[in-house]
Give the backbone structure.
Amino acid sequence: PRGAGGAGRAHAVATALQHTVNQVDANLPLYFVGTPKENQDTFLAQNRIIAVMFSVFGAIAIALASVGLYGVMSFSVNQRTQEFGIRMALGADNNRILKMVLRQGAIQLALGLLLGLGLALTVSLLFGSAISNVLFDVSPRDPLTYAAVALLLSVVAFIATFVPALRATRVDPMVALRAE
């Protein structure tokens, strides 16, 4: 039977077993006394804490990266308001302005991915044996992990770039040309 009754019986059996062993030799310890579920939970508790910490730190890093890229792109769009106004006054449509801003974000993304993934691969080549214990049996040079990270960062970068790019397409040419 499962549930509290099963755990209670396991505890009763463990107590009886400890009592019997103490009668034979009081200095003989018992290890891993409990249900397999309890033993597994105890064994995996530290790894779960580390995994949760890495997940939280990763989420914070993604949030910081997206806010940073949004800030850079938003600042760039604000600085180029007159340029967008002139381009629109000369006949550029919204799609052309959108593509221009998205291209700028894509260049920043490509440079960041190249440097970041290159640095990560270099560190994994230099210290691969030292960090393999922390990675839960995932190879430090796992191409699927690198691809997943690149895809996630690309999606985040696209969203962080798309919002300022849309704002750039809404520039009124007359207002932009009058602004200093």
